[in-house]
Structure to design on (465 residues):
């Protein structure tokens, strides 16, 4: 099939492994720079970095941070990713951990700060810089206070201190000492954050001049390896964001490839959509090569069903479709090393929604195409151009043939070739070019004429008449 040929040309462009961008050895200390705005593209990069470090059994991850903050939704996903890591996590605040950056730092187990640096001021605001409306502000702070408190407790930080970063009405008190009064969101410089109260640092465990100084002070062993963001991280975000549309395009392209004879562009579109789908999720750290292999295996089984076992068994087709759907669904699951093999319901929420949108949208559009596509001039042109086995053809003189053999609605014959939807059928001793209304009819199937329309002889399976 043309689809397999296109896939063969695209697949070599996909890297051979899911996590081979950086060379990380067992026991290495991985440094991940978190610079600039906290945005979905940063999430794509961080997710990939964390999974790479865990898969290659790094001894620790150091997030070198310099950010003024950014989007809360992206910060929430980053916090969730960091709280799932199974290896020690460190944040080295190299100048700034403002706003959303402070929330991300709280999601790591150890915090170190450069001599001149600051953390805090995480109160939620509108994209324009203005304060949220009163009702929205109360709801947002209530939710985020609960989230940041849970993250702080999990990672051994003071939950009251973490909440004070975003809630100006939060007082921080340690023993009899009021560390931070109400009235303003909390911000700390390096000296304030490392102050020891009751023999315990307020937040940061120490001051470090550099990542190398941090590894020395913490006793981290192993080589230091840095994972850098790539130019494709932003592309990966947009591709994963439009996953339902790519799935929809892939499914519709595959459908049209089988329904429009002689046309190659539907197969090309389908292959490109599926290739972008897998490539985007690979770059975002969500999938490796194994899901691509699973999808291709399913596609091969479906083609075997169509080409060799049509109308005799459905086993190959059913298994193939199941493997293809499973690979598409598994590609979108955000699963981290060390988690259970079978994802939880929450991990399936977004993938299932994307799949539902794509499948329902495909059914609706395919139903419309099956009804109206055979009536279009484009469809008729490609149907007449379709290659057929040698033999006399009377489709170009349908009216004369109808007169000679009394070819009229109700006349029965036998399909000589596969009708998908055009091909050849035998009526009496003559082979005629025919076309169906869109359905697939296997060779040697009894067919019945339902319409003769100028250049067309339209047939249907006799079992459906």
């Amino acid at each position: 099939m043309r689809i397999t040929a296109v896939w063969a040309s695209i697949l070599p462009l996909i890297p051979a492994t899911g996590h081979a961008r950086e060379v990380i050895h067992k026991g290495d200390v991985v440094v991940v720079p978190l610079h600039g705005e906290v945005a979905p593209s940063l999430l794509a990069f961080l997710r990939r970095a964390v999974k790479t470090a865990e898969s290659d059994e790094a001894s620790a991850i150091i997030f070198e941070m310099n950010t003024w903050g950014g989007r809360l939704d992206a910060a929430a996903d980053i916090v969730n990713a960091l709280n799932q890591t199974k290896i020690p996590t460190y944040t080295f605040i190299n100048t700034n951990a403002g706003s959303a950056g402070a929330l991300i730092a709280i999601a790591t187990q150890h915090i170190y700060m450069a001599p001149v640096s600051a953390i805090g001021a995480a109160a939620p605001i509108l994209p324009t810089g203005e304060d949220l409306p009163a009702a929205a502000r109360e709801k947002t702070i209530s939710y985020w206070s609960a989230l940041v408190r849970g993250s702080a407790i999990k990672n051994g930080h003071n939950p009251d201190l973490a909440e004070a970063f975003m809630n100006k009405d939060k007082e921080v008190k340690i023993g009899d000492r009021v560390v931070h009064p109400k009235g303003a969101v909390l911000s700390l410089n390096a000296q304030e954050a490392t102050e020891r109260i009751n023999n315990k640092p307020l937040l940061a465990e120490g001051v470090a001049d550099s990542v190398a100084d941090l590894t020395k002070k913490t006793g981290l062993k192993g080589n230091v390896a840095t994972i850098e963001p790539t130019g494709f991280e932003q592309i990966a975000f947009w591709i994963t964001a439009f996953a339902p549309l790519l799935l929809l395009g892939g499914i519709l392209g595959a459908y049209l490839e089988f329904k429009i004879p002689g046309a190659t562009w539907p197969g090309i579109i389908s292959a490109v959509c599926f290739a972008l789908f897998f490539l985007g999720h690979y770059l975002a750290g969500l999938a490796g090569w194994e899901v691509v292999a699973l999808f291709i295996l399913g596609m091969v089984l479906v083609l075997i069903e169509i080409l060799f076992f049509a109308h005799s068994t459905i086993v190959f087709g059913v298994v193939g479709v199941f493997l293809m759907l499973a690979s598409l669904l598994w590609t979108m699951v955000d699963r981290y090393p060390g988690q259970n093999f079978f994802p939880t319901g929450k991990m399936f929420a977004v993938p299932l929604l994307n799949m539902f949108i794509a499948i329902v949208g495909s059914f609706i559009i395919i139903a419309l195409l099956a009804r109206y596509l055979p009536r279009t001039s484009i469809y008729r042109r490609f149907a007449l151009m379709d290659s057929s086995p040698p033999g006399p053809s009377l489709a170009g003189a349908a009216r004369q043939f109808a007169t000679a053999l009394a070819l009229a609605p109700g006349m029965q014959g036998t399909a000589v070739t596969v009708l998908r939807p055009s091909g050849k059928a035998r009526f009496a001793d003559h082979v005629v070019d025919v076309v169906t209304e869109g359905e697939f009819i296997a060779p040697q199937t009894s067919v019945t004429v339902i319409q003769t329309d100028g250049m067309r002889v339209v047939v249907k399976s006799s079992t459906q008449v």
